[in-house]
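Subject: Protein entry, chain in single-letter code together with its fold tokens

Category: Structural biology, sequence-to-fold work with a learned token vocabulary.

Notation: Tokens come from a learned vocabulary of local backbone shapes, not from coordinates.

Start of record: The labelled sequence and token lines come straight after this line.
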Amino acid sequence: MDIFRTVLMNAAGAHHEEPKKGSYEWKKEHLTPEQLARTSDNKEKYSGIPAIPVDIGYNSGMNVGGAKKTGVMSNASSNPGVIIGMGLTTAALLGMFKSSFLGDKVGAQKMMQYRIMAQFFTVTALVAGVTIFGATYEDDEHAK
């Protein structure tokens, strides 16, 4: 929002912006020369873009041998029923939109019912996958 205000003020020709308190420009105006000599200008050292912490950046994991497999594809391979249910839900939604746009109220209602069935299948597959995973999970650290 601050960028838009600056652009509008520059376009209007009324640009007189006070430096933010604590910034080097503010310190140059408000500190004594002795205090200013002890203050460094960190403009080159720090940018306005925050750094990404190493533990979450660049797909790094605790494994030394390579990148840890994460994301949609690994989850899909562990529980493909959820992906099938999502596809069925999407197909039912698209069919409902098509029927609605064509003015077929009975067809749109039927597709809404199919969507509810597909969502029920998706939730059931998700719960079944979590249940099966919980029943077959073995903690390597606990086993030792």
Remarks:
- Residues 2-38 form one domain.
- The CA atoms of residues 89 and 119 lie 6 Å apart.
